[in-house]
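Give me the fold.
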Amino acid sequence: MSGMAALPPELFDIIIGHARDDICDLATCSLICRSWLASARYHIFQGNPISIRPGNVQTFIQLIAHPLSTLPPYIQSLELLSLNSPEGSFDSQWLDPIIGILANLPCVTEILIENIHWGRMNPSTKSALLTGFRALTHLELWAAQFDSVSHLLQLVCSKPLLQILSFDDLGWEDPSFETPANSSQCVPGTLHSLRLSNCYKRDILDWLTSHVTIPPIHHIQLGSVYPEDTHSIGRFLKRLGSDLLTLQLEFSSLDAGGDAEDFCSQVDLAHNSALRTVILDKFIHYSVYQFSSAVGWIPELISRIPSLREVSFGIAIRDVEELHPQEDPIDWDALDDIFCHPRFPHLRALRFWVSGNVEFDEAISAISLSLPRSNQQRILRFHRGTPRLLD
C-alpha cells in the first residue's frame, strides 16, 4: 500500500464510485484498507434502504446500538415494514423500542413507513417521528390511517428539507385543517415531487392551494382520478402554473360522464405552460373494463399544451386483439392524427409501456401498424413494464 498512499484519496473515491452499482465489489473495497472504508460504505448504503420488520428489529437494535458500531453515519434510507399483520389491523407497537434510535441517525434522508394508525401509536413514538429525522428529503407513507388530515400534515411539515412526498392507501376521518396563515402547518418550500395514490387527494391539494406561496412542484403523480377530486386538482394545477413539468394519472372510467370527462371539464392544462410530459397509465388495461374512444378525451386533455414533448401510455393486454376491442373501439386513426398535428411542434416521443401476457414484439408491430404516421415520423417508443418517468 506504500505506492497507493502517495495518491490523493479523492482519486480512490472516484474509482470506488464506479463500482456503486455492484454491492459485492463495494464490499471487497471496504475490506482493502481503512482509508477505503468510508467511501465504499457510502456507496453501499446510497440507494439501498435498510428494511426493518418486526421479525428483525431486535437484531437491528443490537447491531446499531452497540457502542462499537460504526454503521449509523452511513445509513441513508430506511423502510419500516409490517404489512404481514392480519388484514384490517395496524401494527406500530414494534416501532416503540427502536424509533428513538432511528430518529437520531444523522444521515437518513429517505424513509418509508407502512401499516400504522397514528391515533393508536405510543405518544413517545409519535414525538420521535415529529421531532427526529431532520435531514429527511423523501417521505413515503403506505397503508396508514390518521384520525385527522391535520395529524398527517403535522408530520409532513415537521420535515423542513422535504423534497419528495408520496402517499399510497392513506385514510383519515376528519378532513378539516387550519390554513397555513393561522397555524404552523406550512408545506416545506423545498418540495418538488408529489405522489397521491388511493387517498383523499382533494384534502391534500386544498391544503396546498391554501398557502399564500406554494413550492415549485415539478412532478405530480395522481394515480386514479375520481370526479370528487377533479375540482381540487384543477384549482391546484392552476396555482402551480408553469412550475409543473410532469403529470401522471389514470382514469378508472372512460365512459361519458365518467372520470375523464369530469377531469377535462375541471382541469385546464393551459395554465401549465411548461408541462412537457404526460403519463397516462392504464390506457388499456385488461383487468378493468375501461375501453373508450381515445379521440373523445385525449385531444381535450392535451390540446392546450404546446410545450408537450412526451406522452406515455400504459397498456396491459393478453393478446394484440385487445388493442382493437369490438365494443367501444379506440380510434387509432384519430389518435395518429392528433400526435402528428402541427399543434405539437416539440413532441419527440410517444411511448407505450407494455405489460401482460402479450408478446412484446407482437405488441410493437400491432401498435406501429395502428399509428402509421407516428411510426413514419419515428416518435414511437416501446418499453416493457408500467409507465414511469425516464431520466
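Residues 220 and 319 are 31 Å apart (CA to CA).
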